[in-house]
Write a structure and sequence with these properties.
The complex is a heterodimer of chains A (about 300) and B (about 290). Chain A has about 300 residues and is an all-alpha fold. Chain A has 13 helices and two strands, in the order H-H-E-E-H-H-H-H-H-H-H-H-H-H-H. In chain B, strand 6, helix 6 and strand 7 form a beta-alpha-beta unit. Classes of the chains: A mainly alpha (about 300), B alpha/beta (about 290).
Amino acid sequence: MIKVLKAMIVREIQEHKVAFVYAPFFVSIVLCFVIASVYFGGTSIETEQFNFSTEYYDEEIRLAMQSVSSISRIDIVRAALVVLAFPILLTVGFGLLAYSLSTFADERKDRSLIFWRSLPVSDLTTVLSKVLIVTLVVPLMVVPYIILLQLVSMISASIFFTSNDIVAFSWLWGSYIFTDWFRIIFSLWAQSLWSLPLFIWLMLAGTYAARPIAGAIVPPVILIVLEGIIFKTNTVLEFIENRVGFWSRSDSFPKEYEEIRVVDISDIFLLFSTQAFWIGIFVSCILMASIVYVRSSNSDHAID
Amino acid sequence: MNTEVVIKANNISKKYDDSYALDGIDIEVSKGQIMGLIGPNGAGKSTFLQSVLGLLKTEGNLEVLGLDPRKDRHKLLKEVCSITDVAVLPKWMTVAQLLRYMEGVHPSFDINKCISILSRTNIKLPSKIKVLSRGMVVQLHLSLVMAINAKVLILDEPTLGLDLVYRKDFYSQLIEDYYEGNKTILISTHQVEEIEGVLSDAVFMNQGRIVMKDSIESINKKYLELRPDQKYLDDAKSLKPLHQRTELGRSVLLFENVEKEKLEAFGEVRPPVIANLFMAIMETTKQGDLK
């Protein structure tokens, strides 16, 4: 079973290497380049919500940084590093959505479904391998890119401060919590489990619909409209909205976060204790069973 | 021949809307048989083969190697390998990636044997499948199947799109494997003349029904073709031939269960080729239906 799953996961990565390998790699390299450029005076990033420029590292800021407590300083550095990783996470997130929608649709389109189903692999194993890609493998694959980006940021900052006679090396690296790598991994796994009903729904649309995008959008829209008209509620819409967002910021998560920060491992266990999480897993299991049924009933190539 | 039944199909039916793709099919295939399913388009050959592979839900009782193909499809496919449609290999893969994948998921796949078979073709391991010609994709697919050490082979039009040289090569390789491994083979093709020498049994199908099934040995004993001298034509016809046709201006009469010695008095006698027998049986059946 492990050997079969390994072969299937390798196959999925080979097939979708643009989404899972090249795209996040490209984004992380561009980000590394931009960050290094900012530190070495080449450019600056200024938006309404976010400013990133060495011009802000003036005497006043430097004194302010030195005057804050070490705990606050650590939180600032950790939050900044999390924010930096957002473009990579968004890229992979979109990659996973596109993967989920196309993975079963493509095998019907190019008729390779006939070949895959001629091999001794059950439909359930096939679905499980794709779920593992979404929940376990791709979140793990993205972490090296995040680490690369963080290290480039830290090294660039260290060089910048040192070359500007600012003694920040020890507090800067002292604030960089290497165990955050593991928090990020577990947080991404939690996120993929939290958003799993969406991914599996897209897979189901690719399995049954002639036009997968329409198959993914139309039924939920009908459900939302019908629910609004009949029950005057919006449970389905809220469910979808919640699953699109970060798990730690969902309505049902018992802890409130005021700022962007790396979540604690204990928060993941807190997530597992919520009813909403298990409702999502239950819905995912039903949708997975539906995919297995529809895929095994697919006999459009059957007549001679 | 071993009489262990490998495929047992009783009253298998499959209905699409108002028409039957399969209509009460009864077939038993024993270990070591090479059974050919012969019939025109729409006869139900592919539908039957797909039901044997568990790819289609049908009515009736179907057992393959003692398993229900629908319920135990993935277990069954460890022992049964198949080509139900050629040129459906994933185009984005390279040949090497496909071979590695097969090695990972198929316990009976011999990657070295496959590489050895491929070395006799122009297919290169680093090539992407999408750049291969249709014939090469079929060659690759057949190479994969031949490298699986399976008990049962299900082949649906396996050589469609292949040139004559490779078709001959494939069938000779198939025969070699068959004698080495005592495999059971169920094969359907339109190119009946190419598999005629390979088959141990033939099943004629039309419109979802079995028109005739018999061993080649028995067919050769039971049916004889007579090319009578013109002067004996009427005498020969008095023996009530099953079917009559004209070939290069000469009458050819097909007889069932008539002694060879009797016929030899009127002209040249030989067993019919399967394609001709099939055509004769089809026409006879059609006439019977009309009556």
